[in-house]
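Message: Study each token:
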Amino acid sequence: MDAKEKQTDFIKAYLKPTLRQFGYLTNSQTWWKSREDFHIVINLQNFSWNSKEEVNFFFNIGLALKATTKDNSKPSYHDLNILMRQNGYLPINRCVHDYHNKTGYIIKTGSDLAKFINEFQIDFEQNILPTLDDLNTLEDCINYYQTIPFWGESLRQQITDLGLR
């Protein structure tokens, strides 16, 4: 199985069912979970230089305020008011491992898919998804993102400008 086939298998056999289990809806390579005033959005993005031998990809993860979302039945990457890659939600010791470098995840033709999924599972199921699940209100979002330079103040300002608070 080449790297592209392995990524497809990973998405179909692990990623989509896992995100569905966590309550996310999907459209293509974008998943979202809706809250009262916002959507939590996860978007898989491939790099343009990918080949059959090596696939590199990352996740755009963030919030889309319903007040600014073009279609609330299907929020997209373009609706995000807060946008960070997966590293922004991971502890430093998880930002680099055998299947993850500074830019994202890597699957090669020689990669062990079961080991890749195990490492990915630690990143998403033990770190990213629990963090996102704690974001239930705009106040939760403000409290979480205020510790992150630029994004906390940006979110607070957008919420104020939209009269949501």
